[in-house]
Specification:
215 residues; alpha/beta; Rossmann fold; two-stranded antiparallel ribbon; 6 helices; 28% strand; binds S-adenosylmethionine
Length: 215
Amino acid sequence: MEEVEDWKERCQRMVEEQLIPRGIINRRVISAFLRVPRHRFVPSEFINSAYADYPLPIGEEQTISQPYIVALMTQVLDLREREKVLEIGTGSGYQAAILAEMNCCVYSIERSRVLAKRAEEVLKQLGYTVKIKVGDGTRGWKEFSPFSKIVVTASAPYVPPSLLTQLEEGGLMVIPVGNKVVQTLTLIRKEKNRVKTESLCGCRFVPLIGEEGWK
Ligand code: SAM
């Protein structure tokens, strides 16, 4: 495995130049970003761009999201220690590592077996405990539900009803909703008899493909 000697400095610059100026101020989020070696989650040909301000290809026509978007999605979830979090779209495993670094109990579903296996290996090498399943994340993970937080890292045409059912009362879900080209990053709060929705910003994600997503 290729190493990046100065990764800590690159990581520090990423936080100072890309995250803090855009409003990422939660200390636990920032310290997680400073501790996770992002370069370990990208293919070796992109290792020099691992801390750059854009998404990168990870194979299987998928991407690791831009650092700021991962940070924003993490910050809006208002995470507490030991909270049970479900991630849909493991991809490289980077978002899962950030959640694990924040001491959450992380469950992550990925539809690509190749990516799931690779992510599982890196996470294990770095000492993170994440429970990963290969499958259609639009159906959630009933066995371990309810989840206090859900993060969907692929874009959906609508909020998958199964995920809403598996979200705890008072829980939060962050999900990009829209068409296949542009979406709105949406924060959902599940309350007693209703669901509150807040639009955060425009975004571009790869599609969420599954029974309750894109066909
Ligand atoms: N969170 C990832 C990371 O930190 O690298 C980035 C995820 S990438 C933008 C979106 C991922 O969602 C892809 O790996 C894709 O295979 C996966 N995906 C798409 N539809 C899915 C589904 N129904 N269930 C699980 N994973 C899905």
